[in-house]
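Hi R.,

Here's the input for the phenylalanine complex you asked about:
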Amino acid sequence: MQVSNQAAGDSGGMPHWSSRFAFIMAAVGSAVGLGNIWKFPYMAGTGGGGAFVLMYLGIVLLFGVPILIAELMLGRMAQRAPAAALAHLGRTHGGTTAWGWIGGMGVIAALLILSFYSVVAGWAVAYIPEMLSGELANANAERTAEVFGALLANPEQLLVWHSIFMVATVAIVAGGVTKGIEAFVTWMMPALFIMLLFLVGYAMVEGEFLRGVAYLFRPDFSAITVDVVIAAAGQAFFSLSIGLGTMLAYGSYLPRDVSIPKTAVTVALADTSVALLAGCAIFPIVFASGLNPGEGPGLVFVTLTVAFGSMPFGMIVGAVFFLLLAVAAITSSISLLEPIVATLKERSGLSRPLLCVLIGLVAWVMGLATVWSFNDWSDVKVLGDRTPFDTIDYVTSSIMLPLGGALMAVFTGWVLSSETLRRELGFDSEALFGFWRFLIRFVAPVGVAAVAIQKILG
Ligand code: PHE
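And here is the predicted structure with phenylalanine in place:
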């Protein structure tokens, strides 16, 4: 394993991953999180089902994977934290450090996302004792919606869970992302996967499985609008953790003998299958219990709890599920905090633990806007008819991440030479390399610009 000491030093001391497998699991840990299990189903539900899912899959394939490859590669080439990495590569390959601003935007996006991510992860943590209390045994959908509504209506309680989650995130990153996290990721991510398979099995037997699956996979082309495309793109970038420097930071710890294209495909496959499994578990239950697919952010909490309520040992199964979801969330939230810390550490010279605490505090305070979006501020509308939470989510996922991703694609495709790229990536075939480069040079930037122009004119 040959990650240089300089890399670790530059990026603030994050230790090397102990093996290729551990690295892949860490990247998967970043990608797989609330985005797959909480956000994907409710976005698919509010986006109309099949049309959204089709766009999502297309975007993951044509934009997501190529940009993920580029981002990991930029990190491994530069061996620096995101902003410095782009500034450095810009200077050495293209004569300007201005590219570093992409990293700056990424840091702001990461901070904004972390602020609401922690609040929502707090809901998952809150549901562990909620399940164990047995209160939801045999509950119908009306009851589970009532319980979830009561949680959202209580800002003090939301704040407690948000605080617990943020403290845990800060503690882990402050300690350096250690072997402990590796153990978490390597055991608990597969456990989550198995749990989801089990829930899909349950949905097959007890839910309206065919209706749920048809809803997800039968595309209604007439339902594809610019807004659906933007939502799907935002979801794809968010779910893959790309466009803001997370994967760039992780790439800087990636050993040279690991194939980046293979790693990227593995991460995207794992990420997408978890999202689709979550959808296949949730929608059959949505239809069987008369819920509305467009329920919004509470969807997973309201539907899966109906299932847990009716199965033997369901309260324990449910508690384990929410524990695994919280762990999946924390392996993502540390990957939001890490690039911010790494970037500021290079600039400020402050110690890693101190920076973690300071940034965690800022994100925690910003999280109040999300906490109150579901109660005291639910009437506050910012962008269009969006609550503060919806606004932060929209601006980050649907604008900043695709923009950041497209800019990194432009840099990779137009500033770095094809010899450099070929050497760094070691694609199996020249044809694949050519296709990837075409996607990065033309499809990603033009696609993002076209959608942006449509939206602005529309
Ligand atoms: N991909 C994570 C999820 O789906 C969220 C995330 C986004 C993490 C961006 C890091 C960077 O939950």
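One thing worth noting: The mean pLDDT is 92.

Cheers,
M.
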